[in-house]
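2.7 Reproducibility. Because tokenized structures are sensitive to small changes in the input, we list the exact sequence used for Prepilin-type N-terminal cleavage/methylation domain-containing protein, including any N-terminal residues retained from the expression construct. No trimming or masking was applied before prediction.
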Amino acid sequence: MNNHEKGFSLAEILLVLAGVGFLIILLATFPNSIKLVTWSRNQSMAKEIAAQEVEKVREQSYINLAPGTQSLDETDDLRIGLLPEGGGEKVIADCDPAICIQSELVKKVTITINWNEEGNIRQAKLVTFISEGGLNQ
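Resulting structure tokens (single pass, no recycling of outputs):
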């Protein structure tokens, strides 16, 4: 007796179906993974830019920290140009009297980096206080 049956076994069919299902799930989640990686990269870069801007302000003497707002763009840090529609601002303000209740000489510095991610405005913000006689004074 010759037993050469044609066709596939149930185990072979289930294995192929599992492989196809795995590929479908992988391909369905791939675009979302790319978006998350891009968002994470942009967020990290914006935080690095903001931290570097804070360090630039800390390098100045307290007396040279004039209150005001300054726009930040690629001329301040080339990486801002790598962010989609990237920009930012640096705000230096005198300390709020509710915080500096003993008339301490303190400036509040706020660095904000903005970018547009698929129509959503994202931002990274760092706030610090710099006092007379503080770091590098």
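The chain has one helix and four strands.
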